[in-house]
Write a structure and sequence with these properties.
Helix content is 41%, strand content 14%. The protein starts with a helix and ends in a 5-residue tail after the last helix. Helix 3 packs antiparallel against helix 11, helix 4 packs parallel to helix 11 and helix 12 packs parallel to helix 14. The strands form 3 sheets. Strands 2-8-7-6-5-3-4 form a 7-stranded mixed β-sheet, sandwiched between helices. It has a 3-stranded antiparallel β-sheet with strand order 9-12-11. Strands 1-10 form a two-stranded parallel ribbon. The chain is built from 14 helices and 12 strands. By secondary structure, the protein is of the alpha/beta class. It comes from Flaviflagellibacter deserti. It holds the Pfam family Aminotran_1_2.
Length: 382
């Protein structure tokens, strides 16, 4: 067996979800909505199954979806993409990330990663033979500095992986941050693999800025998106990859030997969804923002003030100022048994030197679910 994967422990996400099922706890740990997703998009998928093509679609994706992706990003981000040469469909964003890392990294290449980080990044980088160089972000602002980048980048740097908006911190990197990182990418001739699955889930009038749109980054950025996050259909696993033709040539070969294709009915439905009017996407943000504010207000009312949530499905609470004298993992495991609420310790998103005082809470739930969780947590802090 491959030692990298066989020696990996069970993730905290599996642990907490299992505990939630076993105890009947309210699961605010895993990041998925408890609704069914937009009915018209689901009906489009069902119609495509019954009346459409159900054999192998083109390896790069259905032409109508690739065109829809290009049109969508032109409209929302002002990025002009050739749907034939610069857009590819994958079976979810995680496959897109894996394919990008396998296509771009050779053994010994260094890869800059920002922690806390999505748990798939590090094993995929190592499996590709990459050497991780970790940048440690801290609450409450979770920002990186020029000093951090100077310490992380070297002549061996080949790839930078950036998640923006950032899960689990619920922060959105602004133009100043992205321009600083892009300067380092260009100086060290590195490719930015940008996990932008939360690009539409930003709040309070914030704007998502894709790295691929910045000066000097058009030919050295792999932009990755996710229909699952855009449409609250996380089980569909339909991802998009956008990159300049020289990069796409290698990216497509990696995809060809991973999943090769993605279900055509889901592709057809996502193409339909991406062409929806702006009001749909703005309404989605407003609904999630309202849920965020409802949970944040409830948490403050019981003495658990959350950190600012600028995007994603998550709020975070820093336990350190509350005088609870407990680390985040112990807190979460106690909570699921004694209070019947499952959360996620943010220390699980660190590979080394973790922040051990922050817990992540998912708010993309129905009002009754959020209110019930607050009721169970009441009296926790005295």
């Amino acid at each position: 067996m491959n030692a990298l994967f066989s020696n990996l422990p069970t993730t905290i996400f599996e642990v907490m979800s299992l505990l939630a099922r076993e105890t009947g706890a309210i699961n605010l740990g895993q990041g998925f909505p408890d609704g069914s997703g937009p009915e018209d998009i689901r009906r489009a998928a069902a119609d495509a199954v019954l009346n459409g093509y159900n054999q192998y679609p083109p390896m790069m994706g259905l032409p109508e979806l690739r065109t829809a992706v290009a049109n969508h990003y032109r409209h929302w981000h002002g990025v002009d993409l050739d749907p034939v040469a610069e857009v590819m469909v994958t079976s979810g964003a995680t496959e897109a990330i894996a394919g990008a890392l396998f296509a771009l990294i050779e053994p010994g290449d260094e890869v800059v990663l920002f922690q806390p980080l999505y748990d798939a990044y590090l094993p995929l980088v190592k499996r590709a033979g990459g050497v991780p160089r970790l940048v440690r972000l801290e609450p409450p602002h979770w920002r990186f500095t020029e000093e951090m980048l100077t310490a992380a980048f070297s002549p061996k740097t080949k790839v930078v992986v950036l998640n923006n908006p950032l899960n689990p911190t619920a922060t959105v990197f602004g133009r100043e941050d992205l321009e600083l990182l892009s300067r380092y990418c260009q100086e060290f001739d590195a490719v930015a693999v940008c996990d932008e699955v939360w690009e539409h889930v930003v709040f309070d009038g914030r704007e998502h800025i894709p790295m691929i749109a910045l000066p000097g980054m058009r030919d050295r950025t792999v932009k990755i998106g996710s229909a699952g996050k855009i449409f609250s259909l996380t089980g569909w696993k339909v991802g998009f990859v956008c990159a300049a033709p020289p990069l796409m040539k290698s990216l497509s070969k990696a995809h060809q030997f991973l999943t090769f294709t993605t279900p055509p009915n889901l592709q057809a439905a996502v193409a339909y969804g991406l062409d929806k009017e702006d009001a749909f996407f703005e309404g989605m943000r407003q609904d999630l923002s309202r849920s965020r504010d409802r949970l944040a207000s409830g948490l403050r009312s019981i003495g658990l003030p959350p950190l600012e949530s600028q995007g994603t499905y998550f709020l975070n609470v820093d336990l350190a100022p509350l005088g609870l004298n407990v680390d985040d993992e112990s807190f979460c495991k106690t909570l699921v048994h004694e209070r019947g609420v499952a959360l996620i310790p943010v220390s699980a998103f660190y590979a080394e030197t973790p922040v051990t005082s922050v817990v992540r809470i998912c708010f993309s739930k129905q009002d009754a679910t959020l209110d019930a969780a607050i009721e169970r947590l009441a009296g926790l802090v005295r």
